[in-house]
Amino acid sequence: MLAVQKTDVHQPLTLQDVPTPQHCGPDQVLIQIHATGICGSDLHLAHWTGWPAERLPLTLGHEFSGVVTAVGERVRQPTVGARVVVQSDVVCGQCEACRRGDTARCAQLGFIGVTHAGAFCSHIAVAASSCLTLPDALDLDIAALAEPLAVARCALRTSGLQAGDTALVLGPGSIGQAIALQALDLGARHVVVAGLNDEARLAQCQALGLTHTVDLAHDTVPQALQRLTGEATVQHVFEATGHPQSIADGLGVLGVGGVLTVCGVHFQPATVDTRLIVMNRLQVRGSLGSATQDWHEVLAFMARRGADLAPMITHRVPLQAFERGFELARSKAASKVLLLPTA
């Protein structure tokens, strides 16, 4: 089969012909992959030079949906033919955190497509316990959005957002869109999505029914909030850009007791006004990845709203043309780009 791999620390991703897995372990299932989304972390990993040499070559990709084609001898669920998505974290199951059920704090936590073979290919063997069976009517393309939706769900849970609250989402990419959609579904009173020189992705937000959008190339955050909501502050800010300036922007529009939830991955430090945090009794929380609870809630959300999520997927690209897919994903013209192994 063809697979998009990192084979050398200092070289770009390449398309490799690798053996198609024919068997799986006793606690695993074999999945024929339908579609795999390109994540912002994939864009970073493609050029990251910190790879341990012993981990390469490695197939990337972790946002995927597919169909189970074989199961291990100890597996009862899922069964052959099941349509599934897969939690991307890989846990040891043996450490103290795992034994008490807190797998997010696993001492040997790994991730599909980072520490373990990923899904930019046609087949993958994964732990059966990581699979979630899809609602019957859910389209497999839409199902490939489950992972970013679960990341967004985790951010919302971390924030403590309640029905009737107001929120600003900084960053109109897939994670920002997923946060905004689910915040409204949870009963948020106003949700504003902000971008910078982001006309195309803000238009995608509008197509998703996110009517309160602002391009900060033409407006300021406080002015936009006042114009769109009639209020100068919000109770929640979700930072999903990875740009340090967004931290200060977000803190500056929080009302007293407000919460800034940071879910963008930052590679540069941010300067914050701690006086503002203290005087306004603000909270800054970090959110990374997702938990099993988030995936179950997301699948219930997708069962109700799956068709409404279609505008999140802007491009479908054959796996063989992965370079074009990555180029699109780096641009602000695309939202979620899917690689299709059978296209």
Automatic annotation (TrEMBL):
It comes from the Bacteria. SUPFAM superfamilies: GroES-like, NAD(P)-binding Rossmann-fold domains. Its cofactor is Zn(2+). Residues 25-136 form the Alcohol dehydrogenase-like N-terminal domain. Pfam families: ADH_N, ADH_zinc_N. Residues 175-303 form the Alcohol dehydrogenase-like C-terminal domain. The keyword Metal-binding applies. InterPro entries: ADH-like_C, ADH-like_N, ADH_Zn_CS, GroES-like_sf, NAD(P)-bd_dom_sf, Zn_alcohol_dh. Keywords: Metal-binding, Oxidoreductase, Zinc. GO terms for molecular function: oxidoreductase activity; zinc ion binding. Belongs to the zinc-containing alcohol dehydrogenase family. This is Enoyl reductase (ER) domain-containing protein. It comes from Comamonas serinivorans.
